[in-house]
Design a protein that fits this description.
By secondary structure, the protein is of the alpha/beta class. Helices cover 25% and strands 25% of the residues. The protein contains twelve helices and 23 strands. It is globular and about 65 Å long. The two termini are 19 Å apart. 40% of the residues are buried. The N terminus is likely disordered.
Length: 413
């Protein structure tokens, strides 16, 4: 994947390495991802119903669900990409949140709800913006300020010079006066391969990298912006060594790129977020869908999320990953082969995946197959897949299966 590089000057009195235009290693995972675009995004935003203030009533803590949104870079004119969003689309999304009557909360409110006694409305949104792109200040901040929305900045310390495409500390402090809070996003936004290389050299080298990339950032950012007590894993990549040391740095909560609504029982060091891509509007729509749905019957049996009862029948066709198979986190594609099935009405085939809800699977009528390419690596231990379809005579069918994820394995070593 071609990376355009821009030079960023020293942030803390040392020479900073050249910064890629897209510094997020999540882009590596998306190099071959072709999003299934939805052309009716603007229409759906306009149709968001006006909600009464009843939707903002406080509820018991275990009845609240929070959709945490993750953004990166913005532009009025540059071509959109996974990490770069059109400014006008960002405005439409903020309008949708307002029109739908959802409550936008601050990071301090989120932490008080998760760890304390604060009650919130049933449906809440938390807005986070990663890296420290200057466009956050020039494009997103005016819109957030206009709507009166609080927001949280995850900053990495080598991208704070104010030169090139980066924000300056002065810009960030100005935003802090109007709803912004700050968390750490590491020192240099190291790629997963750098972490793996350190781990391969032994626990001492890995611990030293954790201190250098994570631990050192908390006092630096706190000195500039006040107390910092949150962390965001670059690209969602995290290891036990990181999680073990984070609390010692004063970190209360650490955030991933795993999509899904957050409840009060969320693991505080693996909090889920919806990464909202500039070229795939369906992710935002999934984040805004607060309908209470349960895929499969795991809830009724007390099984772990993403699993199915052992009595669940096997799918009547070949699937990948296979039922109960353990796959690496970057396995990439969920697929089914219906070539040996007769009488399938392919216009009725739908796929839902635990943690994602209904997904835009691609149905190929020529090969009689169905595929969904995942937009991110998966760190959830279990995934269940649910496929529905109808026969040409109108009979409804359903197939379900689950498989396991090894969160520390990859397809390529």
């Amino acid at each position: 994947m071609l990376l355009l590089l821009v030079m960023v000057g020293p942030a803390f009195g040392q020479d900073a390495a050249p910064m890629p235009l897209n510094p997020d290693p999540l882009a590596e995972d998306l190099a071959t991802y072709s999003p299934f675009m939805d052309d009716d995004f603007a229409e759906e935003v306009e149709e968001a119903p006006e909600q009464s203030t009843d939707s903002r009533l406080l509820v018991p803590r275990d009845q609240t669900r929070v959709a945490i949104l993750g953004y990166h870079n913005f532009s009025k004119t540059a071509p959109v990409s996974d990490m770069l969003m059109r400014t006008s689309d960002f405005r439409k999304q903020m309008e949708y949140i307002r029109n739908a009557g959802l409550t936008v909360i601050s990071m301090p409110e989120f932490l008080e709800w998760r760890f304390g006694t604060r009650e919130l409305p049933a449906k809440c949104v938390l807005i986070t913006l990663d890296d420290g792109w200057r466009s956050v200040y020039t494009e997103a901040y005016p819109i957030l300020h206009e709507f009166g929305y609080p927001f949280h900045l995850f900053l990495y310390t080598q991208f704070l010079s104010g030169r090139g495409d980066s924000m300056s500390p002065a810009m960030i402090r100005e935003m802090q006066q109007h709803g912004a809070t700050v968390g750490s996003h590491s020192a240099s936004h190291a790629y997963p391969r750098a972490w793996k290389s350190a781990a391969a050299k032994g626990p001492e080298e890995e611990a030293a990298m954790v201190e250098r990339e994570i631990g050192s950032t908390f006092p630096k950012l706190s000195k500039l912006f006040g107390t910092v007590d949150t962390y965001c894993y670059p690209g969602g990549y995290h290891t036990p060594a990181m999680e073990e040391r984070l609390p010692g740095y004063g970190c209360k909560a650490a955030f991933t790129v795993i999509p899904g609504k957050v409840t009060v029982t969320e693991n505080p060091l693996q909090i889920r977020r919806y990464m909202v891509f500039g070229n795939n509007h369906s992710i935002f729509r999934h984040a805004m869908d607060f309908r209470m749905t349960q895929l499969g019957t795991a809830a009724a049996t007390g099984a772990s999320p993403g699993t199915l009862p052992s009595s669940t029948p096997l799918p009547p066709f070949p699937v990948r990953p296979a039922p109960n198979e353990t796959v690496p986190r970057d396995f990439g594609i969920i697929s089914i082969d219906m070539s040996q099935m007769s009488g399938v009405d392919f216009s009725t085939v739908h796929m839902a995946v635990s943690g994602f809800g209904r997904v835009p699977a691609r149905v190929d009528r020529n090969t009689r197959s169905v595929q969904w390419m995942l937009p991110v690596r998966i760190y959830m231990p279990n995934i269940s897949v649910h496929v529905t379809w109808k026969s040409t005579d109108g009979t409804a069918h359903k197939a379900e299966w689950s498989f396991c994820i090894d969160p520390y394995a990859t397809s390529q070593h």
